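Q: What structure does this chain adopt?
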Amino acid sequence: MTHLDSAKAWREQDPDPITRVELDALITAAEDGDAAAVAELADRFGTRLAFGTAGLRGELGAGSNRMNRVLVSQAAAGFAAFLTGREQNPSVVIGYDGRVNSDVFARDTAEIMAGAGVRAILLPRLLPTPVLAFAVRHLGASAGVMVTASHNPPRDNGYKVYLGGADEGSQIVAPVDGEIHAAILHVAQSTTVDQIPRSTEYETGDESIVETYIAATAAIAGDPSADGASPRIPVPFTYTAMHGVGYETSAAVFARAGFAEPTVVVEQRDPDGAFPTVAFPNPEEPGAMDLAEATASAADAQLIIAHDPDADRLAVAIPDASSATGWRRLTGNEVGLLLGWRAAEREAARGGSGTLAASIVSSPGLATIADHFGLPYRDTLTGFKWVSRVENLAFGYEEALGYLVNPASIRDKDGISASTEFLAMAGELAAAGRTVADRLREADEVFGAFASSQVSVRVTELAAIGRIMARIRDARPAQIGAIPVTQTDDFAGGFGDFGASDILRFWMDGGSRVIVRPSGTEPKVKVYIDAVSTDGTAEQRRAAALATVAALEAGARQLLAE
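A:
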């Protein structure tokens, strides 16, 4: 079947008038010999968005290589078949964010699940991803579906899947992803969308689900008036939802926890799938927090709390007089180590033995903290699905702004609960006349100065990622920058307790580390750089670690460019 034939067959089953019109125009242009249209059809129908451990994620539009109602309907039917084959009376909770078509994809999923005999519960309105992840466990559901592309570009959407039961509401891992993918392909190859059974007899969850999440999350902050509790004063802070769905739920949690009412970045407060004020709605991207910094400066705030559009990630900025903007965004590793230190102190104080965990591309500093407090530590593969599955977990994080501070309630990263824990910490520091910056300096003194950075290259052709990784693997560097490589770990065939993964890890002279891997959510190859110094004063340690990171950054750029 040619790409043109595939496009015509797709159009016939497409229930979305917008993508049908879009496809009609492409088909007509291709039939007239328009080379650009022919190439566009090849891109849209030459492959299919693969369902993996991250579910589905891609650009909106017609075609098997885009996110649309046909693809989502096939995914919902395939996932329903997987669930009904797995247990007798399965149930699924479905959530959605404010991106274009998220609500449509969620309703399609609810109708198809109900049509397949799966008890389907649609959350009452657009809500953050952590509420969906919480609801899977809270309701004892077999599975969860969240329609979101998280922090991806505006034209993207996605389909994230969770499993309940023994999986405790974690995101799926292999081999389950392959089983679901096979079920989806069977639907796509054997059934047209109009033949998939549907029912409007699905349930709409009530607000008690949201209320329970708010109460459980606010409780993380603790009661500063309780016996033995550390005193806390409210810290003035600025909040941005990055045009996502985090504001309403976060504001309710902050008020319940007794924090100061935040100064909100009004331009980014309400859900808007166009994301008009940011090129990429990701707090890690340059410029994404410009409005938050300006708002915070005008309000004399002491902190900035930022969520990505589905509020499962947290970014923090603190005042910095040496910065041109007056603010410094903390790295994901800095926030992770502060929260991990707090979790370790709490665990040690109660005589517990909970495990601290982080992905292998996150700072090795968390292992040092765990060792300091005599607690177990686990490295995991990249992806929060691995962090959340660590047994006896007390705290887990990944450097890409993902943190899990309350594993008893949720088994996924949660930007709202992490915000709550961070604001409680800041309030306790303020009551003692100290700041977050003071706590960071103390960490350098106690554990050593850990510094990290990241270098990445974005590609327009996904095949380029494989070529870059193959080139580096085939010609392993003897040094990165001017620093010699002392050991290379290739995870392609598995390494230690880790299964096969497209990761290269280089250990450097002096104890620093460089890791190269493809992004799991974006068309990028990423290089993660970590260094540590334990010599001299806190200031000297910090300077030495940063100097090593800078040298490795230059070497990493050269490595990717060769």
